[in-house]
Each structure stands twice: as structure tokens, then as C-alpha cells.
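Shapes recur. One chain:

:::
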Amino acid sequence: MEASGMKHWPRITVITPSFNQVDFLERTICSVLDQQYPVLEFFVIDGGSTDGSVDLIQHYAHQLDWWESAPDGGQTEALNKGLARATGDIIAFLNSDDLYLPHALRTVGQMMSGADGPRWVVGKCLHVDEEDEQIDVMFAKEPDSFAEYLMRTDGLLPQPSSFWSAELFDQCGGFDEALHPSFDYEWNCRLLAHGERPTIVDEPLAAFRVHAQAKGVAMADQFEPARQVVARRYARALSVAERLQLHRNLGYRQRLTAIDRANREGIEGLWSSVRRRPWWLASQEIRTALRSGDAAERKAA
């Protein structure tokens, strides 16, 4: 790496929030330490785990810049604690079941160094299973516009492979603790609303672990409704034409969410939604779901 001409690496702060993730936490910690990044600040913030995580963290305490284990308000509160202590030029967070890939921090540090470096970098992100075997790749696609990003239902910027200049937190604030399922999505939207755009790295920087207890799996049915709430919050930042387009997009997504819930919980919930919003009956998807649900209930009876 010295051949790159880098003499003064920017300091990178990595914050790892954790709660009862002893099965994966050591691999997460090692994926950060094994980067051997020259100017690393590394925090592990545990929410009062009872599964042996604290003993594991203590084992690595001499290689951490700060750690604690105490009950807290959850992931977002833990991250904001870390932000309050961070002294890095670059900020990132890595959940306690995810991984950095080799050389990720040096790649980012080299890209974001200097006054002209990007303030927001996002790379590809692998999906891996419990044994670290690759499942697929999540690509990072630069938004065509703020409105386009608000209307996305997939192709969102992957969090584990995202890195931000500390200046952005100084200017835009910390993570919204009221938005547990979608706080990282809201943070990206906040940056886009402030005119920031990510620089995309065409290589994997991190890995998101898919397992039954992962937030992205255990809370999967909550993410889309939460993102709809965030998108409505930022509608006022759009032009009139974009707001109308977003309104239609959100109406369609809300109907699909209601249909998905009906498939899991029964058709009565969808009928209740239709009684509150009778105009939904103009939707072919809603009429088909109601007929299918009623037919299934009659057959079951």
C-alpha cells in the first residue's frame, strides 16, 4: 500500500453495536482488526448481552478504543453513543453479525483522503450465510435523483459497505432513534435531501449475514412500511410533479404491503383496509386478492 503514495491515512472510526450475537461477534471483530488499517478507531457497544458476548469483548478489549456493555434503547442509541465519542475523519458502522472484506478500509481510506475526496462512499455488499459462504451480491446503484431513490423498493444502498465523512454527521446530525427498522434508510434520504450523492465503488467491501435472528430477516415485514413513512416525510423536498409521482408509487406499495399482510394473517385485515379506503377497489391487485382470500376461507370452512 505504500506504493500508492499514501503517507497520511485518514482516521476511520468503526462502530459495532451488539446484543446477544456471540455466535458471530468474534468474526465481526476480527474482520475489522484484520484490516490492519494504520489509523483505526474501533468501538464495540453492547446492549447488556447475557450470552457470553461480554467475555468475548473483554478478550479483545486491549485492541478496542472503547467498549461498554449496558442496557440501552437499541441499535440506534448505541450508534449515537459511538458517534458522540468518534474522532475519525471517516465514520462507518458494522453490525455484530456482518463482516468487512480484506483491504476494505484501505480502499476507502485511500479514496476519501484529501480535501477533494468524496464524502460518501458505498461499495458492493455480499450476502453470506452462517458459515460465511456467499449467497449473492448486493450492488450499489447511484440514485438517478432523490425522487427515484424514495420510490425504490429494492436496490437500496447497502449499509455494511457504506462510509461517510465525519463532516456529514456534523452537518446533518446523528441517526434517528425513533426509526429502528429504517434509520439507515432515513439517514441516506437525509443526505440526498441535503444534496449529497454517493460515490460508488465497483467492488465488494463488506458482507451482510443472512440468518434467522438477523434484523433484516427477523423484521423483514416491517421494513417496507417503515420506508414508506420515511418517503412521505421527505416528499416536501420534491417538485410538485415528483410529489405526485411519489404519491402514486406509495399508494401502490401500500396496497402491496396490505396484500402481503393478508397472505400471512388472513383476508379480514385487507377487507378492513378497503373499508377505510374504498378507492382501493379500483385496483386489480386488491380485487384479485380479496376474491382469492374469500375463496380460501370458504374452502377452509
